Amino acid sequence: MLLYNTLTHTRDEFVPNVPGKVSMYTCGPTVYHYAHIGNLRTYIMEDILDRYLRYAGYDVKRVMNITDVGHLTSDGDTGDDKMLKGARREHKTVMEIAKFYTDAFFDDCRKLNIRRPDAIEPATGCIDDFIRVISGLIEKGFAYEAGGNIYFDTSKLEKYYVFHDFAEEDLEVGVRDGVEADSNKRNKADFVLWFTKSKFEDQELKWESPWGLGYPGWHIECSCIAMKHLGERLDIHCGGIDNAFPHHTNEIAQSEAYLGHKWCNWWVHVLHLNTNSGKMSKSTGEFLTVSLLESKGYDPLAYRFFCLQSHYRKNLVFTYENLDNAVISYNKLVSKVASLLREAKRTADVTIDEEAFANIKKRFTDALDNDLNTSLAVTAVYDALKAKTTAATRLAAVKDFDTVLQIGLIPAAEALIAEEDARAEAAKAAEAAHVIFDDPTVRAIEEKIAARAAAKKAKNYAEADRIRAELLSEGITLVDTAEGTTWHK
Ligand code: AMP
Ligand code: ZN
Fold first, then answer.
1. How far apart, in whole angstroms, are the C-alpha atoms of residue 405 and residue 470?
2. Which phi and psi angles does 471 have, rounded to 5°?
3. Residue 196 pairs with which residues in a beta bridge?
4. Which runs of E-coded beta strand occur in 206-336?
5. Is 251 helix (H, G, I), strand (E, B) or coil?
6. Ligand 1 pocket, Cβ-based, cut-off 6 angstroms
7. pLDDT digits (tens, 9 = 90+) for 80-128
8. How many CB atoms lie within 10 A of CB 321?
9. Does residue 19 have a cis peptide bond before it, meaning omega lies within 30 degrees of 0?
């Protein structure tokens, strides 16, 4: 499998450290608000990587952190502390906010068929690990104390900007949303490992440490949580492209300084979901959520399908028009799968043509082996539907591919069939009702009743009685009521 590596700038043949096993780390969400559909694009594409590695036979262990503290890279972070801001906005404690939005995040993941990582670790659960690694970095001379905070000294590294060959002055010390200069730093690129003195003095969560009461910086959490669950050597680390610098760059700096050897082989970054006015961003407060899409009538899996139609290393523009087009394609695909399900049931043929299956499958695996080309993998589903082989073989291929794509093709097709059957039933019932109404015998009776009513109105009672007698001789009894005449046999 070829997988692009931000570290080498090439698509390299994926080889894990231990044959057959993959250790995979994913930067999790900052839980001060709902995840937006941009964040979820990243998690959907990482899920494809996770699921495809499993499909290919690897024993994958995937770990994700939850940033519930330590989302500041330095005291120079502009604006407010995000968790505190979230807590104030909703009149809750920081931990209540973290719990609420962590649950909301996994709820969104469930709706999007994103597999739950094997280990999920909130940063607040690993304070001892952070303290141990920071102490190790101080001992080895990679960290220093200034103004009450502990900083990582980037000048001690041979190469700090590992992903790029940028000139230092071109890279302002960025955080998730911009910074102010921090006068404590020895070098512009240095970053905080532990805060004891912060401009955010009203920080709710603080812990005792060898350097005083304080809280961790953002980057240290991912290094420590990855090491805690996956050991000293990591196969794959993923995140959105905005994480490459400074977050992942700093993770590499501190992890390799601490361990004394290379830490992670593959860095996989998902490009952004943008709107026409730019990157979708949580901190601006203007963003789209899965619940919002649902409230507008969109199936979350149609959004997943929309993401799969483009390559993860290309920016993707979200507009409702683009999503609507994806919905149309998705519905067509589901309807083709429904036809196949009907065909398979009708023919009752369960023979799997192994050779045909292998040929169809090759297109699918070739697509994903080529740096996760998901749009070609979706095309392979169409190819499977059209393949010249038994219905059972085609159906088996569609089911197989959807274990990776997870766009819910079979349940959606079954729901469509149930809906179509219910509609056909209703139409049949309406047809039956129409037949009774249109029955010529009934019509003749109704006409005679009408003629009798007309005779009565014209005071021709003899004619009226004659009609009544005639109907009675046919076994039809008339009953005159205030509302008119009814009849029964
Ligand atoms: P955050 O909750 O801000 O820490 O972000 C969670 C994940 O979403 C990270 O991997 C980010 O890199 C990623 N991310 C943030 N914004 C976007 C976006 N507009 N499109 C795709 N991924 C994003
Ligand atoms: Zn991270």
1. 73
2. -65, -40
3. none
4. 215-216, 234-240, 264-270, 273-275, 278-279, 316-317
5. helix
6. 27, 29-30, 38-39, 41-42, 67, 176, 239-240, 242-243, 270, 272-273, 279-280, 282
7. 677 777 888 888 888 899 999 999 999 999 999 999 999 999 999 999 9
8. 8
9. no
pLDDT digits over 122-161, tens only? 999 999 999 999 999 999 999 999 999 999 999 999 999 8
What protein residues have CB closer than 5 angstroms to ion ligand 2?
Answer: 27, 222
Q: Which tokens go with 456?
A: 């009565």
- Looking at residue 168, what is its pLDDT? 54
Helix (H) or strand (E) holding 291: helix 290-295
Q: Which of 205, 195, 203 is nearest to 95 (CA)?
A: 205
Q: Which residue, judged by its Cα, is nearest atom 7 of ligand 1?
A: 39
Q: What is the pTM of this model?
A: 0.86
- β partners of residue 62: 24
Res 284 pLDDT > 80 = no
- What count of residues does the chain have? 489
End-to-end CA distance of the chain: 79
Contact 66, 258 (CB under 8 A): no
